[in-house]
């Protein structure tokens, strides 16, 4: 991802459901995001923060009909896409629901299908830019609340937590009014002051 403001988050609490129809279609459903669940981004004892996606955060993206792709680990050719009608996204009280039917003849689907059956690929993720967010630094750890996003893709993933953290760091720097370099220098100073180096 070349866009420094694009972020990736994964959702480990909502499993993907896979239904097979005698080799004709593979129905995949799951949640790419769950509302109200706090997630630690980075090490909370050093520079990290907690993050929560607020209910309704995807309303603008869905109303705008953002062209969202369904990918594997946020890379490669799309397995499905909202603009072609092969990917359906909806928002309910739980979060961002994903529904698609994959073509079992597609080589990319054939590559991931055994991993999905075994549960090796069982998490979902979303790539976004926060359009509305707030920061609360009054608690033990900063809390970022995401109120609205521009949505790029939903993905079936292994575990992209590091990738999301790195991108999130640049996002926090922008949200606090400084560049990534300023944020890194602040973290280095905090580390030195606490004896961490």
Automatic annotation (TrEMBL):
Which parts of the sequence belong to the Prohead serine protease domain? 17-171
- What does the UniProt keyword field contain? Hydrolase, Protease, Viral release from host cell
List the InterPro entries hit by this protein, alphabetically: Peptidase_S78_dom, Prohead_protease
- Does the record's keyword annotation contain Magnesium? no
Q: Does the keyword Hydrolase apply?
A: yes
One GO biological process term is: proteolysis
* One Gene Ontology term of the molecular function aspect: peptidase activity
In Pfam terms, one family for this protein is Peptidase_S78
Give the NCBIfam families listed for this entry.
proheadase_HK97 (TIGR01543)
Name recorded for this polypeptide: Prohead peptidase
Tell me which species this is from: Tritonibacter scottomollicae (Epibacterium scottomollicae)
């Amino acid at each position: 991802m070349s866009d420094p403001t694009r972020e990736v988050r994964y959702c480990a609490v909502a499993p993907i459901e896979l239904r097979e129809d005698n080799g004709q279609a593979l129905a995949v459903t799951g949640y790419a995001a769950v509302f109200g669940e706090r997630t630690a981004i980075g090490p909370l004892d050093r520079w990290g923060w907690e993050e929560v996606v607020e209910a309704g955060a995807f309303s603008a993206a869905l109303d705008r009909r953002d062209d969202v792709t369904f990918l594997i680990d946020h890379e490669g050719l799309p397995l499905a896409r909202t603009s072609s009608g092969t990917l359906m996204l909806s928002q309910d009280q739980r979060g961002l629901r994903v529904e698609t039917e994959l073509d079992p003849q597609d080589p990319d689907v054939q590559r991931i299908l055994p991993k999905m059956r075994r549960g090796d690929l069982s998490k979902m993720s979303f790539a976004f830019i926060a359009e509305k967010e707030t920061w609360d630094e009054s608690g033990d750890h900063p809390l970022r609340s995401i109120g609205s996003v521009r949505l790029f893709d939903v993905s079936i993933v292994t575990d992209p937590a590091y990738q999301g953290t790195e991108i999130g760091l640049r996002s926090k720097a922008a949200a606090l009014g400084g560049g990534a370099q300023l944020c890194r220098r602040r973290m280095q100073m905090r580390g030195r002051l606490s004896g961490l180096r």
